[in-house]
Write a structure and sequence with these properties.
Helices cover about 10% and strands about 40% of the residues. The protein contains 2 helices and 15 strands. The strands form 5 sheets. Strands 3-4-5-13-8-11 form a 6-stranded antiparallel beta sheet, with no helix packed on it. Strand 9 (about 105-110) and strand 10 (about 115-120) form a beta hairpin. The protein is globular. The protein binds fe (ii) ion (FE2).
Length: about 190
């Protein structure tokens, strides 16, 4: 007997999960300390909040060794000169993660306590993120950037550790002529 797929379904046309178990959004107000220019952040927030990204997540039953599958949609845009990015986290436990970029043009930032690295991350990129690196995606294109992530249910998101280390010092900003991006280090 062939069983129906009881898990989820991925819509390749719209690049979205059809039966997510959870959906959440991250807004500028949730990440306001992480942008370079606080005065721009406050100015934007005085009139409206911005959704920076949305995550659709499919989490199977809790169980040791199980995996979570999620799809992140990171909007295009900037806060002042700085491109939108995902918050960025370490995993609470020593678990790696795979990112697969479905659409868009971005950069993947990795950091540990002493170093930061920047990788191209665009449609077709597959990145294996080692367990000891915090990870953040930046959308440097003018369309939505979408990526799949697959990670262990026990990986957890440790945002505090990134903050304690002073955040990502690599900043991705518009170039002087606004036609491209440049990398600045704080
Ligand atoms: Fe992660």
């Amino acid at each position: 007997m062939i069983l129906e797929n009881d898990f989820s379904f991925f819509d390749w046309e719209y690049l979205q999960l059809e039966k997510p178990t959870d959906i959440y959004v991250k807004k500028l107000s949730n990440m306001k300390e992480q942008f370079i220019d606080n005065s721009v952040v406050l100015k934007i927030l005085s009139s409206a909040d911005l959704v920076l990204y949305k995550v659709e997540k499919f989490e199977p039953e809790k169980g040791k060794g199980n995996l979570i599958f999620s799809v992140t949609s990171l909007y295009p845009g900037t806060v002042g000169r700085e491109y939108f990015f995902t918050q960025g986290h370490y995993h609470q436990n020593d678990f790696a993660e795979i990112y697969i970029c479905l659409k868009g043009k971005g950069l993947l930032l990795l950091k540990d306590k002493n170093n930061e690295q920047v990788y191209n991350f665009e449609k077709g990129s597959i990145s294996h993120i080692n367990s000891n690196f915090a990870h953040r995606v930046v959308n440097i294109g003018d369309e939505m950037l979408k990526f799949i992530s697959v990670y262990n249910v026990d990986a957890g998101f440790d945002y505090e550790k990134v903050i304690k280390e002073g955040g990502f010092s690599t900043k991705i900003v518009k170039s002087e002529n606004s036609k491209s991006y440049k990398i600045e280090t704080l």
